[in-house]
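Regression report. Comparing outputs from two consecutive submissions.

Submission 1:
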Amino acid sequence: MVYNLLGLLVLILWICALVDCIKSSNPNKIVWIIVIILVPLLGSILYFLLGRK
C-alpha cells in the first residue's frame, strides 16, 4: 500500500515536471525534457530545484 502511494506521488511529480518544462520558455528545454524522461525521480527534482526560474 505504501509503495503504491509512493509510486503514485513519483508519477505525479514526473508529470508535473514534464508539463511545466514543456510550457516554459527555458532555453535548455530539450535537455531538461531528456533528463526528466531518462531519470524520472531525480530529473524531476533537479528540474524543480535548478531548471525553473
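Submission 2:
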Amino acid sequence: MRITVNRNADTPIYLQIKNQLRDMIFSGVLPVDFLLPPERSLARELGVNRSTVIKAYQELKADGLADSHVGKGTVVLPQTARVPAAPDRYINPLPWYQLFTESIMASHDTIISDIMARTGRDVISFAGGIPAPSLYPVAVLEEIQAELFRTAGQELFLHSPVEGCYPLRESIGQLLRQRQIVAAAKDIVVLSGSQQGLDFAARIFIRPGDTVIVEEPTFFGAIQIFRSAGARVIGVPIDKDGLRTDVLEALLVRHKPKFIYTLPTFQNPSGISLSLQRRYELLDLAYQHQLPILEDDPYGELYYDTTPVPSLKALDRHGYVIYLSTFSKALFLGLRVGWVTAPPQVLTKFAHLKQMTDLHVNTPAQLLLDAFIRRGHYERHVARLRQEYAGRRNAMLKALDKYKVPGIGWNKPAGGYYIWCRLPDNIVRHKLVANAAKRGVVFLPGEAFYPDGTQGDTHIRLNYTFTEPEQIDNGIKYLLQAVKETACANYEEECQHTLKPLV
C-alpha cells in the first residue's frame, strides 16, 4: 500500500492520506474486509503524528468507507454495487415538480417569454417593451468593435472587476450627472440589465412573509421577482400625478414594508410621471418611516415634450434611494447591461451577489459601451430616439382617434414606451385577445400589471416603439376592429345601432 505525503501542498496531510485510501478502495486495490495498518505503524511509516492518521481514518468512517472493530482494527467496508438496469426494465419518470421549491412552483407566469415569442414578421406587436430594431446604431458599434479588436486585443476577452469595468463606470457617472445625480465610479455597480438589480434587491432585503409596496399598476417583472422571494406585494393606486402618497401613508403604518418599489418617470405601464410635489412627499414618508426606495428608471432619458423633473435619487439628500437603470431601452435588449447606484453598504451586497451569480458583465459589451459613450454617440443616439419615438407615439394617438370605438380611452404619455388604454366596460379580455390575434395583432392585457391579478381587465398596454410607423395605423385599426367585434358579441343588438363601421 503506497501513500505519498506532500508537505508543501495546500491540502492538509490527513486529507491527503484519506483521499489516497479512498481512491484505493474505489478502485478495488483495497478489497472488502481489508485490514488497514494500525494508526501507530502507518504514522511511523509516513513520518506523521498518530493523530493525523486517526483523523484520516475518521474521515473514511464518516464517508462509510471503513469501520473500526475492537480487537480487530480498521477494515474496509463493502460498497453498494451499481446494478445496471435491464434493457426492458421500466424506469419511473423523475417527479420534477415534487423537487421544485415552493417559490418557483408558485411562479408560473410566462408573460415575458410569451412576449418574446410574439414578435415575428407576420404579427403587429404592441406587446413588448422593445426598442425599434431599425434604429439600432449598428454601423457605429461595428466600427468601434473593429477598432477594439485592433487596439484592445486580448483585453476584450479577459475578466473584468465584479463591480464592472472602471472606465465604463466613469462613463455612467457622466451620464448620471446629466440626470442631476452625483455618483463617482466607485458608487456604481454594473449589472446584467436592471432586472438583475430587481432580483438582487429582492434577495438582499426580502424574507418570506415580508411586504413590499409597489405602484398599482406596475412592472409585471417586479411583481414576479418580489413574489418569488416570498414577499407579499401591496399596490398603491396612481392618478394623473403618479403614486398617491395620501394612500401610501396609511399603508406604511399598517404593513411596515421592507421597501417601496417605484418607476416614477414615464411609468410602466401607465406612462405617467410622479409630480415634483409627490416626489418630495414620497421621500419625506421614506425618511419618516426609515424605509428604502427602489427607484427603477429605464425610460427617464426618453422624453418627448419637456425635460422631466429630477429623479428621486437626484432629490434624495439622505441616502435612502437605490437607483436602477439600463441601456436596454435606449439601445437594445440583447446588450443586457444596466447599473445600480446606492449607498456603499448596499453596493457591497450587490457586488457580492454579482460575484455569486455570474461573476461580472461580459467584458466586450462593457468596453464597447464605454467607447460608444465617450465618443458622444450615446447622446446623439438618444436625441434621435426622442424624435423618432415621439413620431411613433403621435402616429398611434392619431390612429386611436381615427378608429375610435365608443367607450375606449387613453392617455398621452410625455415619454417612455407605452400608451395605457382603457377598454369599453363590456369587453371580455380573453375574447379580445383571441379576436386581435386573428387579425395578427398582439398587446399586453392590463391585469398582468396588478399585484392581485384581479384588476386591470379594463385596460391594455400598447407599445409604440417596436412597430414601424407604417404598421402602427393598420395595427390599431385591426385592434379596434377586434374591440368592436368583442363588444358586439356580448351586446349584438345594441352594437348594431350604436357602432358605425370602421373605415
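Expected: both submissions complete independently.
Actual: both completed, but the second showed a warning that disappeared on reload.
Relevant detail on submission 2: The radius of gyration is 31 Å.
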